[in-house]
């Protein structure tokens, strides 16, 4: 007998899943506010010249160091309460952002600011890994794909909504403060949002999102660092999950390359470089189109999986993701950029939420935290590689067909080789 999957609305109001969604979405809404402030301060400030290299370095600074220490941090998710990790990490983010705003107000925008921003982003990855690892414990088993679609895609939408609110707040503060101080006030608002996420996390029970008391591994943290290899060992035993993680990471890296292209087009080609507000608003529109694609991609993923199976749906989605890149190979205009953002987001999100459910179904909860930490590391490393590569290839205007063409070719290669049926199509 076939078990009926829950609808998205049933999942939203589900008594066990709702606290996790509330915590995740509040944090990601605040991520949007924080990221809009950083984008304004670093990339769209009239006092600073935006370039692909600068943006790529920003990606590397906030992601690459965490990719090195991430697996070690991930062992915490299998040794201690994930609820406590999410709670204290959100508190840490809030305090960190208060300090960042003070640095901006004082004009201290050098290495010290970079290090503190790095800490804020590194803590964020720990939070998302912990919530992803804990989701199977509070979501109905027969609706795991739909629950992932709801959590991940809802989070992406809230990031965009938070970014929009951030732009609105900045417009008001621009009238009463300098550009840098306006960004500082915006970061203070984000600090309050992370405090709210910490409050929601505090409302969850200590072992609600795992690990269960009998599954907590005893021993020192140093021993836990050594055990990170077990995350890789589990992936070696489940080759389809490992290949799915690689495919998802490469798609996310491709999105990063296209985002850099969009940033330069909006900053230096579609708008007057001296009008930073217009450039930032144009980029927000493109990212909003991507968010709509994310939402639709998540909605169709459970249906696609029912029609074709998890593995085949991921492969078809990866093939279809190349359509967005081909749009920008043909030409680069504001309308085509939005169309590319929508298409790439739609099919890429189908790959992401389906693979998250695949990994969660394969890995026991005892090791799920470590595996999702490894998952984050692979994605982050891919983002940095694509960011640096595209930065070296993109002109200052961003008006180039080469980077979209290379991203599309990479997607086709992944769909045809990494996800080939002989290696990827397994039962389930």
TrEMBL record:
Lipid bilayer topology: Multi-pass membrane protein
Intracellular or extracellular location(s): Cell membrane
Matching Gene3D superfamilies: MFS general substrate transporter like domains
Keyword Ribonucleoprotein among UniProt keywords: no
GO MF annotation, one: transmembrane transporter activity
GO annotations of cellular component type: plasma membrane
UniProt-listed InterPro entries: MFS (IPR011701), MFS_dom (IPR020846), MFS_trans_sf (IPR036259)
PROSITE patterns with a match to the protein in the record: MFS (PS50850)
UniProt cross-references to SUPFAM superfamilies, sorted A to Z: MFS general substrate transporter
Keywords noted in UniProt: Cell membrane, Membrane, Transmembrane, Transmembrane helix
Domain Major facilitator superfamily (MFS) profile: from-to ranges: 245-428
Membrane-spanning intervals of the chain: 50-73, 85-107, 113-138, 145-169, 184-204, 280-301, 313-328, 372-394, 400-419
Chief location of this protein within or outside the cell: membrane
Protein name listed in UniProt: Unannotated protein
Biological source species: freshwater metagenome
């Amino acid at each position: 007998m076939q078990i009926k999957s829950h609808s998205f609305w049933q999942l939203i109001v589900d008594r066990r899943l709702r606290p996790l969604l509330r915590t995740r979405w509040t944090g990601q809404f605040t991520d949007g506010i924080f990221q809009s402030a950083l984008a304004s301060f670093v990339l769209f400030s009239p006092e600073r010249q935006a370039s692909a290299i600068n943006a790529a370095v920003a990606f590397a600074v906030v992601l690459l160091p965490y990719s090195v220490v991430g697996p070690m941090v991930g062992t915490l998710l299998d040794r201690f309460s994930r609820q406590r990790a999410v709670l204290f990490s959100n508190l840490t983010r809030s305090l960190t952002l208060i300090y960042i705003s003070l640095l901006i107000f004082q004009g201290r925008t050098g290495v010290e600011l970079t290090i503190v921003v790095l800490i804020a982003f590194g803590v964020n990855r720990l939070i998302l890994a912990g919530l992803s690892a804990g989701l199977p414990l509070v979501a109905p088993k027969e609706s795991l794909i739909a629950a992932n679609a709801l959590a991940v895609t809802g989070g992406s939408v809230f990031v965009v909504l938070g970014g929009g609110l951030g732009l609105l707040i900045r417009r008001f503060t621009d009238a009463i403060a300098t550009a840098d101080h306006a960004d500082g006030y915006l970061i203070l608002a984000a600090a309050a949002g992370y405090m709210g996420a910490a409050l929601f996390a505090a409302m969850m029970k200590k072992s609600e999102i795992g690990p269960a008391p009998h599954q907590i591994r005893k021993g020192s943290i140093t021993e836990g660092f050594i055990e990170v290899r077990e995350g890789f060992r589990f992936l070696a035993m489940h080759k389809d999950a490992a290949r799915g993680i690689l495919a998802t990471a490469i798609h996310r890296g491709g999105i990063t390359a296209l985002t850099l292209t969009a940033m330069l087009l909006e900053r230096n080609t579609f708008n007057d470089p001296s009008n930073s507000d217009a450039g930032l608003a144009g980029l927000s529109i493109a990212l909003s189109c991507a968010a709509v694609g994310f939402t639709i991609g998540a909605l169709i993923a459970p249906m696609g999986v029912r029609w074709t199976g998890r593995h085949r749906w991921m492969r078809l989605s990866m093939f279809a993701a190349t359509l967005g890149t081909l749009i920008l190979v043909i030409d680069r205009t504001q309308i085509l950029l939005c169309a590319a953002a929508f298409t790439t987001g739609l099919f890429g999100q189908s790959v992401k939420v389906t693979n998250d459910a695949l990994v969660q179904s394969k890995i026991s909860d005892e090791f799920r935290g470590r595996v999702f930490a490894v998952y984050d590391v692979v994605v982050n490393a891919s983002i940095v590689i694509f960011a640096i590569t595209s930065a070296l290839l993109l002109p200052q205007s961003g008006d180039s067909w080469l980077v979209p063409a290379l991203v599309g070719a990479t997607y086709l290669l992944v769909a045809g080789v990494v996800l080939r049926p002989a290696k990827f199509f397994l039962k389930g």
